[in-house]
Design goal:
12-stranded mixed sheet, 3 helices, 31 strands, 7% helix
């Protein structure tokens, strides 16, 4: 067919198993794709632009390679039958589902509410595999991390994807990004949102392979709060003029029960740099290196252990004993702390 309206008219007349394959861009938000009750239809997007209001009352499977949706496109998805989405790209602005909807793959945007709520329709084993440019891509894959906000827990293929996806929860309840297994990243910037974020290492080991390490806070999202807890961070490379962890732009970072280790002969200039009016609170854990503050506030609790001498950043009444543990001033010669 060279005319979409004619193709849809013919579709309405057909019965049985039907396959519709796209060969060119369809619609600009006003076209419709209708599957009536009793029909079994496969829609193959075939990597083409497809912007149409989808109304399914039969059995519909949407598949094919992921195409691009024009920025001005708007799609309404109404499902009263059985709908399986295995691929394609969808700029859905309205979803009405009273039937059976299952998502196995595809890219979805750009409505924040739709992106957050899509997880309810994921098939078992489906995870968020990418989150960028206002679209979330999902597929069947192993989960490395999850994003938790309120009663919602969404599996992600990597820690980096979890960080990207979590921004869609900006302004909601406290967001937790939780590792589900040991992971390795090059470097990562946590941007945060209006509410505090928790990065739960969940007893796992996070290996950082780039000299740029981890950054908390950004120029576009300043004064954010983060807690990293419950696991180990291993840094495998460094540079004499860089820091392993940077706390910037007025951010607040709390480290609770974290072990930070260094596994290279080339160390960073220091372990943590606190700058731009930021705050670092170290509540517990073991740390290989020192701390630099160019413009920030540092609080270190009694019982933390450092391999480096950090006495110059300790608060009044605290010092280090011979093993590097932070203790009350005058107790550096004690044999035990309970």
């Amino acid at each position: 067919f060279t005319d979409w309206a004619a193709a849809m008219q013919k579709l309405a007349e057909l019965e049985g198993d039907i396959t519709v394959t796209l060969y060119k861009t369809i619609g600009s938000g006003s076209a419709e794709f209708v599957v009536k009750a009793g029909q079994t239809v496969t829609l193959d997007q075939n990597g083409k632009l497809f912007s149409a209001n989808i109304k399914n009352s039969g059995t519909l499977t949407i598949t094919g390679s992921t195409g691009s949706v024009p920025a001005e496109a708007a799609e309404k998805l109404v499902n009263n039958g059985t709908l399986k989405i295995e691929g394609g790209k969808f700029n859905i602005t309205s979803l009405e589902n009273t039937g059976d909807l299952t998502i196995y793959g595809g890219s979805f945007g750009k409505s924040r509410e739709l992106i957050v709520s899509m997880f309810a329709y994921f098939a078992e084993g489906v995870v968020v595999s990418a989150a960028s440019d206002g679209y979330v891509t999902v597929k069947e894959a192993a989960a490395e991390a999850e994003v938790v906000c309120g009663d919602v827990a969404i599996l992600c293929s990597s820690l980096s994807v979890a960080q990207s996806y979590s921004r869609y929860f900006a302004g909601d309840d406290t967001v937790t990004i939780r590792l589900l297994t040991d992971a390795s990243i090059s470097s990562l910037t946590f941007t945060g949102s209006a509410e505090p974020w928790t990065i739960d290492l969940n007893g796992s080991t996070l290996t950082v392979t780039s000299e740029y390490g981890l950054t908390f806070g950004s120029s576009s999202m300043s004064n954010r709060s983060f807690t990293v807890m419950g696991g180990t961070i291993v840094l495998t490379t460094g540079a004499s003029d860089r820091y392993a962890i940077n706390v910037k732009y007025g951010a607040t970072l709390a480290l609770d029960d974290v072990n930070i280790e260094f596994a290279s002969e080339t160390p960073f200039a220091d372990m943590i740099n606190v700058a731009g009016g930021s705050t670092l609170n170290i509540e517990s854990g073991n740390y290989y290196g020192g701390i630099t503050s160019t413009d920030g506030t540092i609080t270190i609790a009694e019982g933390c252990v450092f391999e480096e001498d950090i006495k110059d950043v300790l608060g009044d009444g605290l010092t280090q004993n011979e093993s590097g543990m932070v203790v009350k001033d005058g107790a550096e010669n004690a044999v035990a702390m309970i």
